[in-house]
Amino acid sequence: MKYIDSDNLDQLPGKRLAAGDKFSFHCHPDIGCFNLCCRNLNLFLYPFDVVRLKNQLNLTSDQFLDKYVDIVLRDSNFFPEVLLAMSDNKERTCPFLSDSGCKVYPDRPDTCRTFPVEQGALYDAGSDTTRPIHFFRPPDFCEGQHENKLWTTESWSRDQEAVIYNEMTLRWSELKRLFQKSPWGREGPEGPKAKMAFMAIYNIDRFRDFLLNSTFLKRYKVKSAILKKIRSDDVALMKFGFQWVKFYVWELKTKYFRLR
């Protein structure tokens, strides 16, 4: 997830798509480039992606992160990026790629299901709101862009069952934006506070254990309906984690819980 000045939007590669703009695309097994886009990727995984994938693979968060993820803390960034680790082969293929296609297709990440459209988040400081922006950006080798099937960003998102993914990624971008400046003080982005924040966002199985089996519930009053959900609902827990990080790191108020 990258940040750019809104004045430089026109300099980004690809064609910016406004609401209602149409683009041509159709991917299918008979197309010559089928699966070529599933190689040598810098594929960012967002929190909702990790929830869906680790559950689809019947893994714990720890197991999924250890096996399938590269965690990268870039210079001048104050929260790590989570990328899907490519296979250790000549073509560096996606670890979920098979001869017949994607092995995790129903739970494929947001970036995969939104392709060949890229979604960004445009923040308006005046109104303190975030809205999505879209760019049509297939790679040159993509033959699907020359097919005759027409889409808008809205119809494509519905067709790919990406609406909930796009919504969750936008929600994550609103939190990630707060990390443009370091909140860690002398600890730095690898200190205990930062590790707690990463756990709450990406390692939700361990975060659930922290909530339910530490002194957390003795110190904080959580709404009963929310507490019931986060005991078994990973998406509800992820949303709770976002609120916890806002409170824990920046002391921002939340309706999810309060000090006793």
Describe the structure.
Helix content is 36%, strand content 16%. The chain is of the alpha+beta class. The protein folds into two domains: 6-179, no CATH class; 182-259, no CATH class. A three-stranded antiparallel β-sheet has the order 1-8-7, covered by helices on one side. Strands 2-9 form a two-stranded antiparallel sheet. Helix 6 (192-202) crosses helix 7 (204-213), helix 6 (192-202) packs antiparallel against helix 10 (234-250) and helix 7 crosses helix 10. 26% of the residues are buried.
The order of strands across the largest sheet is 1-8-7
Number of extended strands: 11
Give the overall pLDDT as a whole number: 93
Structural class, judged by helices and strands?
Answer: alpha+beta
- Radius of gyration of CA atoms, rounded to a whole number: 20 Å
Helix count, DSSP H or I runs of 4 or more residues: 10
Give the distance, in angstroms, between the N- and C-terminal Cα atoms. 36 Å
Order of helices and strands: EEHHEEEEHEEEHHHHHEHHE
Poorly predicted runs are none
